């Protein structure tokens, strides 16, 4: 599976530093090309709000027009990239406030998705309910060890994405989302 990534820079970071914009890009990646009206229905917001944010995303090159699907009355959009990569070290130096806003937007989108899935959990087939997992772990690590952990977890996730492309999925396969958060514990107490 060939994935098209975008590495965020200061301009694209600012364009994604809004929860609705993160949701729009995620929805286009998940469901494919859509109109602003369709996106608004999926996201539960007004078409005017989605249209405004889609134009901002298009100006930043994060979504693109799909002219072969549109007509004089409706415009279709698709995500311009399959994957978003944020080099937090560089972005933190360039614009820490925009990076923080972007990260909060990502956290909001992940939280909404988790709540939607948990709200629908009782209607899931038992085999999917039994493999749904929300786990947390704690370890006392140095920044270097934390970086190593993050890289290893990313490698495992990327391996599964490569080895199980959507185009080769069997009839019992479903799209599965897995999110990674590696965060320092703010309530550490005594560090001795």
Automatic annotation (TrEMBL):
One of its GO terms (molecular function) is DNA-binding transcription factor activity. Keywords: DNA-binding, Transcription, Transcription regulation. It comes from the Bacteria. InterPro entries: ArsR-like_HTH, HTH_ArsR_DNA-bd_dom, HTH_MetalResp_TranReg, WH-like_DNA-bd_sf, WH_DNA-bd_sf. Residues 11-93 form the HTH arsR-type domain. It holds the Pfam family HTH_20. PANTHER family: REGULATORY PROTEIN ARSR, TRANSCRIPTIONAL REGULATOR, ARSR FAMILY. This is Helix-turn-helix protein. It comes from Mumia flava.
